[in-house]
Every structure is written in structure tokens, then in C-alpha cells.
Design a protein that fits this description.
The complex is a heterodimer of chains A (138) and B (129).
Chain A lengths: L3 E10 L2 H18 L3 H20 L4 E9 L4 E9 L7 H5 L12 H7 L3 E7 L3 E9 L3
Antiparallel strand pairs in A: 1-2, 2-3, 3-5, 4-5
Chain B lengths: L5 E4 L2 E5 L6 H18 L3 E5 L8 H16 L3 E5 L3 H10 L7 E3 L2 H21 L3
Parallel strand pairs in B: 2-3, 3-4, 4-5
Antiparallel strand pairs in B: 1-2
Helix pairs in contact in B: 1-2
The chains are: A alpha+beta (138), B alpha/beta (129).
């Protein structure tokens, strides 16, 4: 079952204000998609965690926001990419409490719990790509 | 530089967060509040987050920090007005928010602050302070 991308735009994440802008862009699309308030809040919160990871751990990068359709329903997919130091041990990084930059270490594990689908791909020395997807109803 | 205003109401301080905070603004609020607690000898801090549509781990940590710092300065903190969707999301995120007292709205928050202040005053007088 393929996924069609109905819309896509990319946001730069280079400073703290960009985290706020990313949250607001995702909120707007989540509302357009018809997500209920709890689901909106979950995906916006996941956005905040992942955008901050991209900025703090990845040294900045991008968020690509897509509206996707799998033939049955539409969803919102977010892909965060950076060219920072990467993550050597992804399993360890997914654990709550794991942190290297003074955070609470809830970024990755928390974002996964707030999403329907979660993918992470990281190469030490090359960078990290994290994507989350939240499906709308019906 | 933008700041979140801190209002003095008797011996309590009231902060109403009405903007989507960027991280630096949250850190500035933390510093400002601790300074104001000492300056006004405040016994309580109420933080109204009813306008906040999202609390992530950063903002959650800021709220915890404020509550802990205030406690060291002999002031109690109550966070009021959390939206239900925010509460649901915080639990799923796994944020413990330890040491934070909450109330549903400003009025109930005020009752909590007054009650906590009275019981701590009583405890101090029993200890001979």
C-alpha cells in the first residue's frame, strides 16, 4: 500500500524561534487535516521535541512537513534532518532519561509515543533523520 | 527584549503565560521570577497556563525548576489552568512534573496558595520560628 504525498513544505530549523514556527506550522496543518484537539496537541508537542533535538543535538537542520494519503485516510508526516554528529546507539537514545545536552531525555521516546508511526535513521559523523506520522480519522 | 509580565498580588506573584514561548523566553521567566520572589518577599507564585496549547519537556522542566527554586526561597508554586489535551499529552510524553502543585483555575489556585501558606506559617511557629 503506497503513500501519496499531497503537499510538502520544508522549514529551516536554525534558531530557537524556528522551534516555535515549526510548532505553529504543524498546528495549522493539523487543524486543516481535521485532527481532534488531543491529536493536534500530541503532534505539535512531538514537533517541539524533535525540532529542539535537531537544533541542539544536530546543530540545526530542516523539518519537512507533508500531508499524505494512504488511500484510506490522510495524515501528517514530519521529517527532521540534520547533518550533526549523529547517534551512535539509537536504542540507548530512545530510552527516557537519555540526554547529552542538558535536556530531560524525553525527546525521541516521547515523540515516538505521541505518534502513530516513527522512524529514525542516523549515521555517526553524518547526521540524523527522524520522521513521525500521525493519521487523521476515517 | 520580550519578557512575560509578573504581577504582584499582595504576598503572591501571578504570571499569565499568553504566548507560544520560545526557549529563551522560558529561561528569562525562570530568572525573573526568582528575582521577584526575593524582591517582594513573596510567599507564593501562581502560573496560569490556560492559554498554553502545548507543554513540551522544555516548558515542563521550566515549571519544575520554578517550583523547586521558589521552594528554596520559601515560596509555594501552583500551576493553574492546564488544558485537558495538554495533560493527556504530558502523561504520554512521560513528563513527571514532580513537585508541582496544580489547580483548575486562578480562583482555586489562590485557595491552594493561601492554605499552603497558613500551614507552613503554623509549622514554623510550632518550631519556634
Amino acid at each position: 500500500m503506497g503513500i501519496d504525498v499531497l503537499m510538502s513544505d520544508t522549514h529551516r530549523i536554525a534558531e530557537a524561534e524556528d522551534i516555535v514556527a515549526a510548532r505553529q506550522a504543524v498546528r495549522l496543518r493539523a487543524v486543516e487535516l481535521g485532527l481532534n484537539l488531543v491529536d493536534q496537541t500530541k503532534i505539535v508537542t512531538a514537533t517541539s521535541e524533535l525540532a529542539r533535538n535537531t537544533l541542539i543535538h544536530g546543530g540545526g537542520g530542516t523539518m519537512t512537513l507533508e500531508i499524505v494519503n494512504n488511500g484510506r485516510r490522510r495524515g501528517i508526516r514530519l521529517t527532521f534532518e540534520d547533518h550533526g554528529p549523529g547517534i551512535a546507539d539509537i536504542d540507548l537514545a530512545m530510552k527516557d532519561g537519555f540526554t547529552t545536552a542538558g535536556g530531560m531525555g524525553l525527546g525521541l521516546g516521547g515523540a515516538k509515543r505521541l505518534s502513530d508511526e516513527f522512524n529514525i535513521d542516523s549515521t555517526p559523523g553524518r547526521g540524523t533523520r527522524v520522521s513521525v506520522l500521525r493519521w487523521g480519522k476515517n | 527584549m520580550d519578557r512575560i509580565p509578573i504581577l504582584k498580588m499582595g504576598e503572591f506573584l501571578l504570571v499569565t503565560i499568553q504566548v507560544d514561548m520560545h526557549d529563551q523566553l522560558a529561561l528569562t521567566l525562570q530568572d525573573d521570577l526568582t528575582a521577584q520572589i526575593v524582591k517582594h518577599r513573596a510567599r507564593g507564585v501562581m502560573i496560569d497556563i490556560s492559554a498554553l496549547e502545548m507543554v513540551d519537556s522544555f516548558i515542563g522542566r521550566m515549571l519544575s525548576n520554578i517550583a523547586n527554586m521558589a521552594r528554596l526561597l520559601d515560596a509555594n508554586t501552583v500551576v493553574v489552568g492546564m488544558q485537558p489535551a495538554v495533560a493527556i499529552t504530558l502523561v504520554e510524553l512521560g513528563l513527571p512534573m514532580r513537585g508541582i502543585r496544580t489547580a483548575l483555575d486562578v480562583e482555586k489556585g489562590m485557595v491552594v496558595l493561601r492554605a499552603v501558606k497558613q500551614s507552613s506559617t503554623r509549622a514554623n511557629s510550632l518550631n519556634g520560628h
